[in-house]
Amino acid sequence: MSGRKLSRGKRIVVAIVAIAAVLAVCLPWALARRQVTAKIEVLSIQLPDSSIAGQPMVASVRVRNPGKATLTYKLALTVDGEMVDVQEVVLAGGQTKTVDFTLVLEVEGTHEIGADGLVRDITVRVPKPPTFELSNLKIEPSEVEVGGSVTVSLEVKNAGELEGSYAVVLKINGRVVDNKVVVLAGGAAERVSFTLREKNAGTYVVEVGGLSGSFVVKPALKPWYEASGTVTAVYDGDTIAVYLTWVHESITGVYAARTESVRFSGGIDAPELGNPGGYQARDFIVGLCPPGSHVYLDLDDYATGKGPYRDIYGRLLAVIYVKLGESWVNINAELLRWGMQAYPAHNWLKYTYFASEFDPYEWLEENYPYVRR
Q: How far apart, in whole angstroms, are the C-alpha atoms of residue 172 and residue 214?
C-alpha cells in the first residue's frame, strides 16, 4: 500500500490544499505591508514670513493621495525634528488637501518645520513692546461763541506688537483739563475725542501728547450761566441772597428750591458797611438787582472752599448777570468799574490771590460786552 501512487484527482486536491495554506499565511502579511508602505505625498509647507515668540502661528501642509484607493493617514508635524502634533487625514484616490496645524514657538531664533521629510525654516523673534503714536489732531469748530461746544479729537495707534495702555492727556492753555486711558492691541488704532465748553471769550491753545492747535471763543450775545433765581436780600456791596429756581444738570452740590448766599467772584471786595463807600456800594447793587429781581449765576469752577463753587464760609462764588431790557449786564464788572472811579483809595481787587476762573481785568477792558454803555 505504501508504494502505491496517488491518483490524479487526489494529487489535485492536495495541491489546492497546499496553495490555500500558503495564501492563508502570506496574504494577510502582504496586505498589512501594503497598508504600511502606502503613503501620501507632502507637496508643500506654507509658513508666515516670521513668527512672534509666544503667539500662535499656522503651518499649512499641502498633501496628495497619489494612489487610486481611499487612504487614511496620520500626518505628523515636527519642529526641529521633534514631533509636536499629529492629524489623521482621509484622502480619496488622487485627492489633494491642505492640513492646518496651529502651534506656538516660544524660543527666539530659526526653527525647522517638517512634515514627512519636507522641511521649511521660520524665524521666531521677540515681539515689539507697545509704542504709541499720536496723529491727526482735529479741533472742530475752530470758532465758537461762549458756552459753545468744541470737539478735540486725535488718532492713537499702538505701533508695537503687544497690547498696552496709554493715557491721553488734554491740556488747554498749559493746564490739564481732561484725560482718557485707551487699551490697544498691537497694531490697533483708535480715535479719541474730548468735548469742551469754555465760558470766557479768548483764544485757547490745545496740547495733546506733542500735538497742538487752537480755537477761538467769541463773546456771545447771551452769557454763560449755570443757575438762576430771585434776589431775596442785598447784604452789602459784594454779597446777596438768591432763591434758586434752576440749576444746570452738570452742577453738583448746588440745588434748586434753596436760598443761597452768593459772594461776587473774581477777587472783588467792596468796602464794609460803615466804611467809606460801604453803604454806597450796597445801594449801587440794589439799583441793579433789587430784591425780587431775577439774576443768573456763572459759578466759579475754581472755588476751593466748603464744597464745590463755594468760599471758605460756604457762600457760592459767582459772576452775577441781570438782563436790563435786551442787554445782559455783569453786576461784578459794573461794581468794579463804578467803585474804582468813585472810591479809588479802596482796594477793590483785594482777593485776587484766591484761585478763580474769572479775570476781573477783562471786565475793565473797553470792548468788554456785558456792561452798560
A: 9
CB 315 within 8 Å of CB 250? no
Q: CA-to-CA distance for 153 and 263, rounded, in angstroms?
A: 37
Amino acid residing at 367: N
Could you tell me if 103 and 2 lie in one domain?
Answer: no
Whether the predicted pLDDT of 149 surpasses 80: yes
The 10s digit of each residue's pLDDT in 98-146 is 999 999 999 989 999 999 989 999 999 888 899 999 999 999 999 998 7
Number of domains in the chain: 4
Write the single-letter amino acid at 21.
Answer: A
Q: What is the CATH number of the domain that holds 174?
A: 2.60.40.10
Query: Which run of H or of E encompasses 175?
Result: strand 175-184
Query: Which has the closest alpha carbon to 223: 124, 137, 333, 349?
Result: 333
Report the CATH number at residue 329: 2.40.50.90
CA distance 199 to 197: 7
- What pLDDT, in 10s, does the model give residues 36-51? 445 789 999 999 988 8
Amino acid at residue number 11: R
Assigned domain for 173 exists? yes
Q: Are 133 and 167 spatial neighbours (Cβ–Cβ below 8 Å)?
A: no
Sheet containing 143-145: order of strands: 143-145, 211-218, 202-208, 164-172, 175-184
